[in-house]
Design brief:
The chain is α/β, with parallel strands linked by helices. The chain has six helices and ten strands.
Length: 256
């Protein structure tokens, strides 16, 4: 099965689609084939509050699960074909993105800003009461004054999401996201950070977050809310505090 431009192809995986109970949530994950989205997907499939996960992306995920509904979509500049798949959703975790220096500046803006705004437009039209959790980044600048293009583009996307009409939008601004599992790093900076991570984590704990812990926080907030924590912006220390709070109640899953 292949994705055709401006066409969404849907397929349920597993022996049969799970039907959410009245107290379970329907969750959309965008970017589930990426590092963070992959962790979010695996955590969501195990989450007792999540009854169904719709994973939207360009490539097949390669896993099967009764809760999983996989939607292949090739052109995120036009998400109109996703309207049906996005109906009756309770929350979305948006992890789609790329790294600075991997693509030209114009493409970086398209992926960071245009894809986000277009997806949000269709999601709001189909599920206006959905909660939206967005992977932003440390230093995101909604004023547009930052000298860093990545910060300006993330800030622009944040500003658009807050104005999109969703009842709750949560903006996650992690600093260095530690990949946990070995991978091919996108640039020299990431190769260096991975090499010095053991020391960096001790010296600057509030400047790092494990990818699996960040994914857990995003899914938990999307489907369960923030509790006593205020939003909509969560900086790296806030995200770490969320993870530590959950671990204190349920037992640690990993070191932050």
């Amino acid at each position: 099965m292949t994705a055709i431009s401006q066409l969404a192809t849907t397929r349920a995986t597993g022996s049969g689609m799970n039907v959410p109970t009245a107290d379970q949530k329907r969750l959309v994950i965008v970017g589930a084939t990426g590092m963070l989205g992959g962790y979010a997907l695996r955590y969501a499939l195990e989450h007792p509050t999540v009854g169904q996960v719709t994973a939207i992306g360009r490539r097949k995920i390669g896993i099967s699960h009764p809760k999983l509904n996989e939607v292949l979509h090739s052109d995120f500049t036009d998400c109109s074909a996703l309207a049906e798949a996005l109906s009756r959703q309770d929350a979305a975790v948006f992890c789609l993105g790329t790294y600075t220096g991997v693509v030209p500046d114009a493409e970086l803006r398209t992926i960071t800003v245009d894809y986000t705004i277009e997806f949000a437009r269709v999601l709001h039209g189909s599920s206006p009461e959905a909660t939206f959790a967005f992977l932003s980044g440390s230093g995101a600048d909604p004023t547009g004054r930052s000298r860093m293009a990545y910060a300006r583009y993330k800030g622009e996307a944040e500003k658009a999401l807050l104005a999109a009409g969703f009842p709750d939008v949560y903006l996650f601004r992690p600093a260095y996201i530690y990949p946990v599992e070995p991978r091919r790093e996108p640039n020299l900076s990431y190769r260096l950070l991975r090499a010095i991570y053991p020391a960096f984590r001790i010296l600057f704990p509030n400047q790092v977050i494990r990818a699996d812990n960040l994914a857990r926080a995003m899914v938990d907030v999307a489907v369960c809310g923030t509790g006593e924590r205020r939003g909509p912006i969560f900086e790296n220390p806030d995200i770490r505090a969320m993870v530590e709070s959950v671990d204190a109640r349920t037992g640690p899953r990993s070191s932050t």
